[in-house]
Write a structure and sequence with these properties.
With 246 residues, this protein is α/β, with parallel strands linked by helices. The protein is built from 7 helices and 10 strands. Strands 3-2-4-1-5 form a 5-stranded parallel beta sheet, sandwiched between helices. It has a 5-stranded mixed beta sheet with strand order 6-7-10-8-9, with helices on both faces.
Length: 246
């Protein structure tokens, strides 16, 4: 018997983003595994619970919250991430063996889409080397889709490519053309030319959603200030933005 795992993309915050395929997978699941990232991020687990309460028709499922290993802050970036993923894989493997019956069905709920700057699939590859599991992936609405929809803009210029990158890479490589930037804790957009267009959004699809657009010269410092205040108020922030030369 093989334990089955669903990796379910649940969208960027709005429960209405949850797809019909995701609803079927939610109703097929007996145990939901969620990472406990500390008191500041308890509302992320709460939102996952709310989605289950809304869409699951038959009670009987349960949540298992797992303590998230700490990522080393003084190590080289890629080394720190690799060690963190390995530690997570050990926690997940132990929990799946302990909490899920040999023929059971479990799930991890991925914010946005599991394919886009999410570590779930890489970690499950390691888990599968330790525990006999099979897993499938249900796509979700990404933060990029939510961002462009909220700002009512196309992602790309006609016939032009779009780069998806991180704040770290933007700071190192600069901007050429259009780029979606994620995981930017240092507001790297401020290094772009002031005429660069920016469309920024945080907490997309939630009641706390924030949106700002303009040029970096016009709204860059406003975004940085708003972001810092929001992070201090909530204890966490999820944001992304689109940059484009004009």
């Amino acid at each position: 018997m093989t334990r089955r795992i669903h990796v379910i993309g649940i969208g960027a915050g709005d429960p209405d983003y949850v797809t019909a395929e995701a609803v079927r997978a939610l109703n097929d699941t007996q145990v939901f595994f969620a990472m406990d990232k500390g008191e500041a991020k308890t509302d992320l687990v709460a939102l996952r619970r709310q989605i289950c309460q809304r869409f699951i028709q038959t009670p009987g499922y349960r949540f298992v919250e797992l303590a998230d290993p700490q990522r080393a802050k003084d190590a080289e970036y890629r080394t720190a991430v690799a060690e963190w993923h390995a530690a997570r894989a050990a926690v997940w493997a132990d929990a799946i063996e302990r909490e899920l019956a040999p023929d059971g069905v479990g799930a991890f709920l991925a914010w946005g889409d599991p394919s886009l700057y999410d570590s779930t699939l890489r970690i499950l590859e390691t888990v599968a080397q330790r525990v006999e599991i099979s897993y499938d992936v249900i796509p979700g609405i990404t933060a990029i889709q939510a961002l462009t929809a909220r700002h009512r803009i196309p992602l790309n210029d006609i016939g032009e490519p779009v780069l998806i990158t991180t704040g770290r890479r933007l700071a190192a490589d600069g901007l050429a053309g259009s780029a979606v930037v994620m995981l930017d804790g240092d507001c790297a957009f401020r290094s772009c030319p002031p005429q660069t267009r920016i469309w920024w959004g945080a907490y997309l699809g939630t009641p706390d959603e924030l949106l700002v657009s303009g040029t970096v010269g016009e709204v860059g410092e406003k975004i940085a200030k708003l972001r810092a205040e929001a992070r201090a108020g909530h204890g966490w922030i999820m944001d992304t933005y689109l940059l484009r030369h004009r």
